[in-house]
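Task card 7
Instruction: Convert sequence to structure tokens.
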Amino acid sequence: MAQSITNAFVTLFDAEVKQAFQAESVLRSAVRLRSGVSGNTYKFPKLGKGSATVRIPQTDVTPLNVTYSQVTATMSDYNAAEYSDIFHQAKVNFDERSELVQVVSKAIGRRLDQLIIDALAGASSPNTVANTIVTSGSAAASNLNVGKLIAAKKAMDAKNVPLDDRHILIHANSLAGLLADERAISGDYAAIKGLVSGDINTFLGFKFITIGDRDEGGLSIDGSSDRNVYAFHRSAIGMAENMAQKTEINYVPEKTSFLVNSMFSAGSIAIDDEGITKVTCRE
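Output:
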């Protein structure tokens, strides 16, 4: 058995991992992304607001005096590694390669998503939707429903958050709660066949992103079975990549195995807290 793998194979494996990673990461395309960042931190600029003033002939113009600030994303380094034992195959064949591609790429995708989830959770958002908002008017705590989506939309509309590129990140259990609300699935209210497809792609201007339980943490739940889900605008969350995902394959004689190691360095931060709404759901 050769103790090295050709550069062509490494290039092929790396390309396959990247392709699968792009498909598996559900949040990377939903935020502001800056790739090729130099250094351990990246500062996302944040501009304030200004108001136009009445023009008075023959006088100096009045500047907006827009405030300028920055938020900093700090990079963290991650590995997704696995051994491929040479005694388990004559060489790294297609089947095992496919399996390792999926294992490695999904691990990277989940970790990158978690950086974004942690940034959403850490935002000091003034917009919150309580777990007691329901469609029936009851004050009892409830899971995700149309009433909470309306409240989230209202909060973002009030902050003049742009209508396009709005997303909502929910848990699978939250989706189950929403599918139990007639207004989300009935053709009398919307042209959505949620019970036919088993999911909801867009509703009230939000693009839905649904995840399940994750070892990395995912959307956390407390002892009262309250889980926070997040409605956000794409420009409200930033992701900076110091080192884009790449893969190495090296032979380790002591292990009589090839070590497949994929790695990346990135950080995420909330840029504009007003573009984020925290929705609490009782499961």
